[in-house]
Design brief:
Structural class: alpha/beta
Strand order of the largest sheet: 14-13-15-16-12-17-18
Strand content: 5-15%
Mean pLDDT: 74
Distance between the termini: 115 Å
CATH topology of one domain: Rossmann fold
Shape: globular
Radius of gyration: 36 Å
CATH class of one domain: Alpha Beta
Helix content: 40-55%
Low-confidence stretches: 117-168, 220-230, 256-345, 651-691
Largest sheet: 7 strands, mixed
Number of helices: 30
Length: about 950
Amino acid sequence: MWTLIVRAVARLASAVGLLALVVGIPVGQARYIGWPLPHQLPSDEQVRAALTSRDWLTDATLIDGLSVLLWLLWLLFVVSVMVEVVASVRGVPARRYRLLAPTQGLAAALVAGLTATIVATTTPAPALTHTPLTVAPPAADRPTAAVVVEPAPRTSADAATRLDTSVLKPVGTITVLINGRPHQHTVVKGESLWRIADTYLGDPNRWPEIWDLNKGKYWSHVSGRTTFHDPDLIFPGWVLALPADATAPPGTGPVDPPPQSSPPGPTTPPVTAAPSATPTTLAPTPSITAPAGAAPTLPSTPDPSATPTPPATTTSAAPTPTGPAITTPTTADPGPAAEDPASTAMPGWIQIAGGFIGVGFAAGLLYAAALVWKRRRHRYRPTPITSPVLDDADLAPPLGALTHLRQSVRRQAPHMLEAEPDRGPTVREYATAEVKPPLPPVGPTGTDLAGVASLPVSAGQGLRGPAALHAARALLVATLTSGRIDDPDAQGRAIVPAATLATLLGVSAVDLGLMHRLTVAPSFADALTLVEEEIIRRSRIVADHDVADVATLRQAQALAEPLPQLLLIADVPDVAWHARLSTAIRLGTAVQIGTALIGDWPHGTTLVVAEDGATTGGADGQRVAVLDTAATSQMLAMLAEAHGDAAPPTTDRDTPTEAAPSPGPQQKSTVEPTSEVAAPAAATDAPVEAASTPKPRIVNIRVLGTPAILDADGAQVRGLRAKSLELVVYLAVQRRGASLDDIMEAIWGDAKPRRAGERLSTCVANLRGVIRDVALPGPKNDDPKAKANGAKRAQIEPVVNTGSHYHLEPALLRIDWWSILDEYAKVAAATDDPARLAHLQAAIGHIHGGLADGEDYEWIDTDREHVRRCMIKIYTQAANLLADTDPHQARVYGDLACALDPLSDALARRAMHAAARVGDADAIRQRLARLRRELDNAGIDLDPDTEQLAASLLRDLANP
C-alpha cells in the first residue's frame, strides 16, 4: 500500500515538473517579458550605431538576450520530450542526440518517472501457460525490445493481481534454462523479471536472483552513448539462466532454442543439455577445424594444455515425457540439414581451436604461413635418395588450422586471398617522376586485426573480464602478424615485460626465442623506459621533417624511415607509475605508440571482454579477437619462422626412417615404399566376371600439371564435376586412402554434416561413373541395346569404401604420381648407379608439372610441398649421376630443379656449377639475377656464398 502511494506521488511530481517546463516557461515568458526580438529587422545605420555606441548594453537588452536563450532551451526540451515519449510508446530505448544533450537527460528522467510502473488494468486472468506462439521476427533494421514494466509488489498467492498478458503485444521469445534444459518463454510488452520469477520460482520477490545470474552476460548493454546497468530491457533471443530450484509451469517441457535473428543485445551462445545453475557458456570443445559459421562459444575456463578433439558423435539428453531431447550435432554428426553456413556465420569472425579471430587476422596468418614455406624452400638442401619414404620434419604444416582458415577467408572475404597487393612505385620511378605517383595505403595494424581499431592510444586501453588475458594474447599475435614484406609501415612491434609474457604464455614463454619484432623487457620499469626512448627517437624524426605526426610523415616523405605501430602490452602497474605512464601514452599518440593494459585502467578506456570476444565499455557491438595459451604459442612459433627468427623444424636422426608414417589429419603420408603396398579392396567389392563380360582397361589419371582423367587416346574426359576432380587429387596423394571425416573436413569443411555427406555421395557417384565409362566403353547394363545383345558390363569399383574409409583402386587406375613414388622407392633400393639412373629417368618421364597446377585447393599446401621436394630430389640426383658423362643433360636437370624452386640457394649453386661445366657464363649471370629477384620479392636475403660462387665461376671462365 505504501509502495503504491510513493509511486503515485512520484508520478504526480514528474507530471507537475513536466507540465511546468513545457507550459510554464512560455506562459511566464509571455506574461512577464513579452517577445524579446524586435518586430522588424534593424537598418544598417541602427546596426552601425549599436556597434559603435557604448550604451547599447542596457538592462532591457540583457533581459531580452536571456529570454532568447531560455526560448532556445525550451525548444530543445520540448523536442527531447517528444523523442522520449515516442521511444517509450514504441518500447525501444531513445536515441541520444548531441544537439539535445543539455536537455535530453532531464526529459528522459521526467518521462520515465511519469510512464514507469504503469500496468494495464484488466480483469483477473489465470497464470500464463507457455504454449508456443508464432511471433513474426522483428525487422532487421528495427530491433524490437520489450520494456520491463515492474508491477506493484505482490505475493504468489495474490493471483488477482497477476499481469494479464493476453492484452499485451508479444514481441518475441527468450529461452530460460531450468536445470540446464532450455524452455521457451514468450516476451510481451510489459515483461519483467518480476513476472519471470513469479512464473518459474513461485515468488516474484526473488527476481534479484535472476538478475545476479545473468547481469554479466547482458545487463551492461551499451546503446549509442547510453549504458544500461539495470534490468530495464529484455531482448528477444536472449538465454536467461534461472536458479537451480526453478520449475516449469505444468504442461510445458524443454524445447529446442528458437533460431536467433541477430537481436540488438549481445550475441547469445547456444547451450547444451548439461545441468548448470550459473549462466556459463556450454558447448562442445571446438576442433581445430571448427567451421567459421559455428556458434561463437568457448570453454568457460580454457585449458592451455588442451589439444584439439576429433569430431564426436551426437550428444543427446535423455528424453522426457514432456518434450523432445536436446541434440548437439558436431562436424562428424550427420544431423538434420540446416541452413547454409553463410546465413548463420558470425560476419567477419572465425572460430578456431582456442579462440576467435577476424577475417583480416586469418588472412595475415595465411600470409605468414606462405612465408614459412618460402623460407623452408630457401633453406632446403637436397640429399641423395636413400629411403623409400620422404618424411622430412620441415614438411609438417606450420599451423594446424590453415585449411579451415583459408576456407573461412575465401567464403567471407575472397579478395584477401585473390587480390595481388599493390607494391607501389620503385625508388627510381618515384624520384624521376615529375608528378609523384601515389603510394599504396598502409595495411591494417595489429590493433585493427585484433578488433580494437579504436584503440585510444592517447589514454591507453584497459582489458578486464573473464577473457582479458585471451584478448591480450590475441593483440600480441595480431601485432606481430600485421604487415607484408612490401609494407614495413604496417609491421607492428610489441614491448612486453617478462612477467606479463609469462602470464600470457605460461611455460611456453621459456621456449619462445628471440624475435626482432618482439622486445621482452626484464620489468615494467624497463619496458616503460624503452617506450619513452622510442617516443624521443620518433619525435626527433617527425620534427626533422617538419610534420605534425607519423601519418603526415608517410604522406609527405615517401623515403622516410618506416615507423610502424609500437604497442606496449603489460599489466596495470602500481598507482605510483600511473602519472609517468599516462604522460608516455599521451606523448606517443603522434608517433604511433599505444598501450594495452591488462586490468582496469582508470585514466583511459577499459573493455570488459567475454569468453567469445564480445565486449562492453567500448563501441556498441564491439568484438575483439581472443586466443588461449596453446593457440598463441603455435602462432608465435609460426611467426618466428616466417620472420626469419627461427629455423624450420629438423629431425635428430641422420637418416630418415624406413617405415612410412601413419597418415593423419596434420601430416599426410603421401609416399609409399613400393607399388605392392596399397589399400586393400573390400571383399564385397571384388568384381565377378562372366565369360562374356569384357575385361576393364586401365584408366590413366593425371594429377601432376593440370589434373584430369584421360581416355584411351590420352584426351581429357568430360563430364567430371570440379569437386569430383578435387576428390581424385586428394585420394591420389592419400595413397592409402582417407577416412570419411578427413575427406569432408578438407573439401567440404564449411558445409553442414548432412549437406557434406550428400555432396560426397554425389561426387563419388560421378567419379565412379566417369571412370567406368572409360574403363568399360559401350552401352551400360540398363541400356536397351545391351539387353538386346546379351552383353553384360562388369561391375567395377574404382573408388572403394571400406567402413567409411575411401581409397582409389590401384588395380584399375594408373596415376602418374603413384608411378613416380614407385620409381622413387626403387631408386632407394637400387645397388648401383646405372640402376638408380634408370629409375630416376623413368620417374622424370612421368613429371608433367607440380601437383594440381592451376588449382587452389584449400588443403593442398603441405602435399604440394611434399611432391615438389620429391621431384627436386629426383632431378638433383639424376644431375649428379650425369655430371661427368653427360654435362649438358645434367645442366637441363639442374635447371628443371631450379624451376621447381626458384628460391633455393643450394639449387641455384648447383645450376651455376652445371652451367660452368659447359662454359655458359650468361646462364650463371641470369641464374644469379633470377635468384636475387625472387628472394627480394619474398623478403629473404641472398646468401653471400652464392654471390661469391658466381663471381668465382665467372672469373674462371674469363681466365681459363
